[in-house]
Amino acid sequence: MSNGAQRFSASAPGKVNLHLGVGEARSDGYHDLVSVFQAVDRRETVTLVVQDAPPVSTGSVVTGMTTTFGVRCPEEHIDAPFNLAWRAVDAVVDEYRRSGAEVVTALPPVHIEVDKQVFVAGGMAGGSADAAAALVAADAYLAEFAGSELGRDTLHRLAAQLGADVPFSLMGGTALGTGRGDELVEMLTRGSTHWVFLNPKVGIPTGQAFGLLDDLRHNDPALVPRLGTATVARALTRGDAHELGRAMHNDLEAAATTMRPILVEILAFAGALPGVARSMVSGSGPTIALLCRDAAAAEQVLGQVRERYPDYESFGATGPSPGAQAAQ
Ligand code: C5P
């Protein structure tokens, strides 16, 4: 890549579910959710690097992709056209070409760089954050080379097509999500939340976790969907970590702990640490989210968790954090 190449960067947050109620399976393979999302300041950065090559009018403008890992690198190769960041850039360019602009400008090719700080396949929507950041970076690139951008509403529609969590990664903050989790309403919060995230080395494919929950519910009538969010909403407006900790709930935790029993032990150990208001599986897991009393407690908890589980990845983060936005 030549020095001085034009670059379009954006960052987007990882997320934790403060509440995840899973309803009925739908005919489209998804489940209806009632989710309270919170974005945290552990952020992915996506950069489009303009290539010194002839502009293209058809097909993908993406020539390739390079991910740099601040977390463990997955075994499989992810710098490929199926990657959500790559698909997000293609979606923005396709939308522009379909948009009815009288003259569709040929666009210069780009190489995508991803700085990955959120766990891969961890239940923190890291891949969705890559997609959201790529949407915003690609819109800035369009503004420069096509002279018009798609704007936030269109990006939100494209986000929902890319995946159920992508709209929230775009929006950030704290939000109630219904439908597949992609119909969002902002929620009121007071103050900040302080977290430690711990990722044991056990993968949980999201689709399998949802499927197992359906199976478990067949045999255990106690596993009813918990769809109410009033207590979480109240705790958020009060800004009290312990009240929020008591209100947090995740229907998918039963599936995650059944698939990976080691999580039960980690949840119990971490939940008993001084300064931890709640330990819970994040989304479909396997990441364990530890809500801490305050910033000082989170720092101590991170140290204790690293000492007990030196082979697992962990980091601290604070919420809420803004959604996808342009970066330098
Ligand atoms: O949207 P995403 O590709 O991240 O979802 C992965 C899988 O998780 C889906 O294919 C589906 O099996 C499951 N899922 C679901 N209901 C949701 C979100 C995801 O069943 N609301």
Automatic annotation (TrEMBL):
SUPFAM superfamilies linked: GHMP Kinase, C-terminal domain, Ribosomal protein S5 domain 2-like
Record keywords: ATP-binding, Isoprene biosynthesis, Kinase, Nucleotide-binding, Transferase
Superkingdom in the source lineage: Bacteria
InterPro entries attached to this UniProt entry: GHMP_kinase_C_dom, GHMP_kinase_C_sf, GHMP_kinase_N_dom, IspE, Ribosomal_Su5_D2-typ_SF, Ribsml_uS5_D2-typ_fold_subgr
EC number(s) recorded for this UniProt protein: 2.7.1.148
Domain GHMP kinase C-terminal residue range list: 233-310
Pfam family, one: GHMP_kinases_C
Pathway: Isoprenoid biosynthesis; isopentenyl diphosphate biosynthesis via DXP pathway; isopentenyl diphosphate from 1-deoxy-D-xylulose 5-phosphate: step 3/6
Residue positions of the active site: 15, 165
GO BP field: isopentenyl diphosphate biosynthetic process, methylerythritol 4-phosphate pathway; terpenoid biosynthetic process
EC top class named in words: transferase
Family: Belongs to the GHMP kinase family. IspE subfamily.
PANTHER family with a match to the protein in the record: 4-DIPHOSPHOCYTIDYL-2-C-METHYL-D-ERYTHRITOL KINASE, CHLOROPLASTIC
Function comment: Catalyzes the phosphorylation of the position 2 hydroxy group of 4-diphosphocytidyl-2C-methyl-D-erythritol.
NCBIfam families referenced in this protein's UniProt entry, alphabetically: ispE, PRK03188.1
Official protein name in the record: 4-diphosphocytidyl-2-C-methyl-D-erythritol kinase
Species this protein is from: Corynebacterium hadale
